[in-house]
Amino acid sequence: MTRDDDYIRELLLEIEKSTEPYLSAAEHLNMSTDEQKRHQHAEHLCDAGF
């Protein structure tokens, strides 16, 4: 899956609006395509130091 900068922007906005101190993007078996995308892009954010 390639990096989607627009999706990363959406995740960052979601984090900014949230009252929680973390972003939930758990990895598990039989993940839907949307869950896989969320998890992989959350990993991109972690790798970038966020």
Index terms:
50 residues, mainly alpha, 2 helices
Explain this structure.
Residues 34-50 have a biased composition (Basic and acidic residues). Residues 26-50 are annotated as: Disordered. By secondary structure, the protein is mainly α. The protein has helices spanning 5-17, 33-47. The longest helix is centred in the last third of the chain and has 15 residues, at 33-47. The two termini are 20 Å apart.
Topology:
Blueprint: H1 5-17, H2 33-47
Biased composition (Basic and acidic residues): 34-50
Region (Disordered): 26-50
Rg, Cα atoms, Å: 11 Å
Class from secondary-structure proportions:
mainly alpha
The overall pLDDT average reads: 89
Order of helices and strands: HH
Task: Report the sheet with the most strands, covering strand number, pairing sense and barrel closure.
Answer: none
Strand content: under 5%
Low confidence ranges: none
